[in-house]
């Protein structure tokens, strides 16, 4: 399965993934919801910035996924701290996710910048920043590209 994922432009997440200073992304919530339990090794993630959710700028392949069980506040903090070398979270993002009851840690490989293309985000993006795209390669996304 492929997904469109919204990342934080202020934290330069896409740039840090491409540069290799970041190799893992995180999602957290107080309830189990997408992407918890659905993202799998081998899935392809296409990345957009939160300030321009229509422009896909990079992609990466999921190399591993950790879906946490229900965590205490302390366990949530500890999990993020243990993975901070891969997450490369600035303080504001650290505190955004730390303390969440459910965390999803997604490690990536083969991260690459793509020739930017635009998607019709009204049909694709969900409010939580994750949208399933089905099993498409780059060329299969054409039906989602705006004219």
Question: What count of domains describes the coordinates?
Answer: 1
Q: Average pLDDT across residues?
A: 86
Query: At the fourth CATH level, what is the homologous superfamily?
Result: Hypothetical protein
Q: Quote the distance from N terminus to C terminus.
A: 25 Å
**Residue share in β-strands:** 35-45%
The global form is globular
Structural class call reads: alpha+beta
Strand order of the largest sheet: 2-5-4-3-1-6
Major β-sheet, in short? 6 strands, mixed
Reading the helices and strands in chain order gives EHEEEHHHEHE
| CATH classification class | Mainly Beta
Uncertain ranges: 142-147
Structure, described:
The chain has about 150 residues and is an alpha+beta fold. It has one domain: Archaeosine Trna-guanine Transglycosylase, Chain: A, domain 4 (Roll). The protein is about 20% helix and about 40% strand. It is built from five helices and six strands. It has a six-stranded mixed beta sheet, with helices on one face. The longest helix is centred in the middle third of the chain and has 10 residues. It is globular and about 40 Å long. The C terminus is likely disordered.
Summarize the structure.
The chain is of the alpha+beta class and about 150 residues long. It has helices spanning about 15-20, 75-80, 85, 90-95, 120-125; strands spanning about 1-5, 25-30, 45-50, 50-65, 100-120, 130-135.
Topology:
Layout: E1 2-7, H1 13-19, E2 24-29, E3 44-49, E4 52-67, H2 73-82, H3 84-87, H4 91-97, E5 102-118, H5 121-124, E6 130-134
Parallel strand pairs: 1-3
Antiparallel strand pairs: 1-6, 2-5, 3-4, 4-5
């Amino acid at each position: 399965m492929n997904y469109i994922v919204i990342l934080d432009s202020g934290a330069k997440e896409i740039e840090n993934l491409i540069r290799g200073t970041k190799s893992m992304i995180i999602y957290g919530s107080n309830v189990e919801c997408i992407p918890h339990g659905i993202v799998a090794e081998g899935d392809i993630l296409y990345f957009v910035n939160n300030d321009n959710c229509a422009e896909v700028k990079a992609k990466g392949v999921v190399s591993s996924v950790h879906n946490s069980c229900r965590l205490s506040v302390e366990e949530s903090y500890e999990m993020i701290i243990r993975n901070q070398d891969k997450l490369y979270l600035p303080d504001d993002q650290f505190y955004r996710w730390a303390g969440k009851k459910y965390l999803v840690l997604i490690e990536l490989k083969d991260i690459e910048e793509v020739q930017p293309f635009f998607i019709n985000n009204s049909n694709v993006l969900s409010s939580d920043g994750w949208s399933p795209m089905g099993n498409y390669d780059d060329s299969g996304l054409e039906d989602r590209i705006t004219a």
